[in-house]
UniProtKB/TrEMBL annotation:
<protein>
    <recommendedName>
        <fullName>Isocitrate lyase</fullName>
    </recommendedName>
</protein>
<keyword id="KW-0479">Metal-binding</keyword>
<dbReference type="InterPro" id="IPR015813">
    <property type="entry name" value="Pyrv/PenolPyrv_kinase-like_dom"/>
</dbReference>
<dbReference type="InterPro" id="IPR040442">
    <property type="entry name" value="Pyrv_kinase-like_dom_sf"/>
</dbReference>
<keyword id="KW-0456">Lyase</keyword>
<dbReference type="GO" id="GO:0004451">
    <property type="term" value="F:isocitrate lyase activity"/>
</dbReference>
<dbReference type="InterPro" id="IPR006254">
    <property type="entry name" value="Isocitrate_lyase"/>
</dbReference>
<dbReference type="InterPro" id="IPR039556">
    <property type="entry name" value="ICL/PEPM"/>
</dbReference>
<dbReference type="Pfam" id="PF00463">
    <property type="entry name" value="ICL"/>
</dbReference>
């Protein structure tokens, strides 16, 4: 017996026990509403999606072709439309997630207005967006099931076989998928990290990404001025997130440990080493220092260290921050990642300055010498100029192979004059294959684009505004938007339905019967799209 039929039977029994006082209640309608609201709380969602992520991680370990993907979404509607599109075009939501970007929260969801990615936005806006995303995904479930229920009713009235429709209802795949949620550097100390993590998990997050930057000096991973914290500080925050998961009963919650060390040349603190070779000592080995041969050369209030039997002075900037040695980023990344995985993190995020499979693989292979199943969440970032990067990669590869590249100017490869060239075509093939290549060769379990819907919103708005306020007038909207919605089968062409009018009408029928005042009558202009 299906869950749907089981619920109908249970509710019918419950109704019968009320001795006639529930005559206005139809058990099948109540079962439908229950099916349309499968997840009662955010914690239900977090527990459900955590299991999905763990299964996907195991599948990737067995076969690197089984990588996962997501797009960053800054509004619930954007996330909903993304998952509706995935189900429409690909038939399943399997291995497709949502990403919640701290950058987009800062730029688009802060009450202060647009902000840089420096953890200045309200921390409460992060769990609020998680809750909003899942509200819209649950509504997508309700709408799609509502259509199936209507088909079931129509088939019954027509005396048709309903088995196929009933099977679709019984095997319905939810739009609710895992969210990888960005907690930045924790928005404060480890207690602040714990409190915010709890709110995010309660809103539905099964996976929290945290970075090793200094919280009050946090920068976007693709900008300069990044400052990292000692391992002990970062591990305390990983512990804080794990405790939040355990307290709330999400025992298999996922933690992504992000390192910005590849591009970060500064540290705020010199950790205290208590014994040779401990984590603090390893961290301090990367400090850029000058050997002190004569104490007379030491200025008042200089900081000195005894390191490897020598007295050294760490290089300190006017703002009090300390410098790392030039060229130490690779080794610091490896140590960060190994340390995080050995102390409770599940996945890694290495912020790089370019999308280069070989560079990423070099770091991952070094990490896997210590943790063989290490795997990454990787930012396919819009901060990279993908076209220029890959054209230059092809140029360099061809040059190394001895191929004639005299027809190309490496520094000008972004030019449109090269768009139809053999080099550009090869670069596009490499871009197209980047995710599968990197999943296979560089240990990337999850590919995401942090800010895609920020850019698509800007591009589509620019195209519409250019035409609508120009010579095209209304044709710019009709030809560029509405006609495409109709031709491509976008459900939101019926925007009233997408906003919930049909769901509301159905509920009114449940509650009021024939007396229901409904919106979907003959005078509803949405009927013009039923052609």
């Amino acid at each position: 017996m299906s869950q749907y039929q089981s619920d109908i039977d249970t509710l019918a029994t419950l109704k019968a026990a009320q001795q006639g006082t529930w005559e206005g209640i139809i058990p099948e309608f109540a079962a439908r509403m229950k099916a349309q609201n499968r997840f009662r709380t955010g914690l239900d969602i977090a527990k459900y999606t955590a299991k999905i992520m763990r299964q996907d991680m195991a599948a990737y370990d067995a076969d690197s072709a089984q990588y996962t993907q997501s797009l960053g979404c800054w509004h619930g509607f954007v996330g909903q439309q993304k998952m509706i599109s995935i189900k429409k075009h690909h038939g399943t939501t399997s291995k497709r997630y949502l990403y919640l970007s701290g950058w987009m929260v800062a730029a688009l969801r802060s009450e202060f207005g647009p902000l840089p990615d420096q953890s200045m936005h309200e921390k409460t806006s992060v769990p609020a967006l998680i809750e909003e995303l899942y509200t819209f995904l649950r509504q997508a479930d309700a709408q799609e099931l509502g259509k199936l229920f209507k088909q079931l009713d129509d088939a019954r009235v027509a005396g048709q076989d309903v088995d196929a429709i009933q099977t679709k209802i019984d095997n319905f795949e939810t739009h609710v998928v895992p969210i990888i949620a960005d907690i930045d550097a924790g928005f404060g100390n480890e207690e602040a990290t714990y409190l915010l993590a709890k709110k995010m998990i309660e809103a539905g997050a099964c996976c929290i990404q945290i970075e090793n930057q200094v919280s009050d000096a946090k920068q976007c991973g693709h900008q300069d001025g990044k400052v990292t914290v000692p391992h002990e500080d970062f591990l305390a925050k990983i512990n804080a997130v794990r405790y939040a998961f355990l307290e709330l009963g999400v025992d298999d919650g996922v933690i992504v440990a992000r390192t910005d060390s590849l591009g970060a040349g500064l540290t705020q603190k010199i950790p205290v080493s208590t014994q040779p070779g401990d984590l603090a000592a390893k961290y301090n080995e990367f400090l850029d220092t000058d050997e002190v041969a004569d104490l007379a050369s030491v200025s008042e209030y200089d900081v000195l260290l005894k390191q490897n039997g020598k007295l050294v002075k760490p290089k300190r900037l006017p703002n009090g921050l300390f410098k790392f040695k030039e060229g130490s980023g690779f080794d610091r990344v490896v140590l960060d990642c190994v340390t995080s995985l050995q102390h409770g993190a599940d996945l890694l995020w290495i912020e790089t300055e370019k999308p280069h499979v070989g560079q990423i693989a070099g770091m991952v292979n070094a990490i896997r010498k210590h943790v063989p199943d290490a795997k990454l969440v990787y930012n396919n970032s819009p901060s990279f100029n993908w076209t220029l990067n890959f054209r230059q990669q092809v140029f360099d590869a061809w040059k190394e192979e001895g191929k004639n590249v005299s027809a190309y100017e490496r520094s000008a490869l972004m030019s449109a004059q090269y768009d139809n060239s053999e080099l550009a075509k090869e670069a596009d093939i490499r871009i197209q294959n980047f995710q599968q290549d990197a999943a296979r060769e560089a240990g990337i379990f999850h590919h995401l684009i942090t800010l895609p819907t920020y850019h698509t919103a800007a591009l589509s708005t620019d195209n519409l505004a250019k035409g609508y306020f120009g010579d095209e007038g209304m044709l710019a909207y009709v030809r560029g938007v509405q006609r495409k919605e109709i031709r491509e089968g976008l459900a939101c062409v019926k925007h009233q339905v997408m906003a919930g009018s049909d769901l509301g009408d159905t509920h009114k029928e449940y509650f009021s019967g024939d007396a229901a005042l409904k919106a979907a009558g003959d005078d509803n202009t949405m009927n013009q799209f039923d052609v």
